[in-house]
Amino acid sequence: MATKVIKDDVIRVRVTKEQKEKLKKIAKEKNTTISEILNVATKNVIKNYEEQEKNYKKMCERSVATEKKIQEIKLKMEQKRLENKKVF
User: Fold this and answer.
1) Which superkingdom (predicted)?
2) Cα separations (Å) of 3 from 6, 13, 54, 66?
3) Residue 21 DSSP SS3
């Protein structure tokens, strides 16, 4: 069985009356609380943010590695060009 995490920090959120009523309706239909709905939404936002950050970091690393390979290829091509000039 999962261990319950103590949640003692509070975040106040300002919403419209319509939003509050819709959240109440959803919570009632899902047999949960507005707090739990917002808690799940918060976890999802955090997870998505962390995933995007991780993906961005990987993309930057790949970009640097690709640029390095391009420069190596350019250097080899220039060396071959110079070798070919010497032959002719």
Assistant:
1) Bacteria
2) 9, 27, 28, 45
3) helix
Which residues does 38 contact at the CB level (< 8 Å), separation at least 6? Answer: 13, 23
pLDDT at residue 87 tops 80? no
Residue 44 has pLDDT above 70, yes or no: yes
Residue for token pair 């899902």: 30
Element (H, E) at 86: helix 34-87
Q: Is the pLDDT of residue 2 over 80?
A: no
| pLDDT band per the 50, 70, 90 thresholds, residue 62 | very high
- DSSP result, 25-83: HHHHHTTS-HHHHHHHHHHHHHHHHHHHHHHHHHHHHHHHHHHHHHHHHHHHHHHHHHH
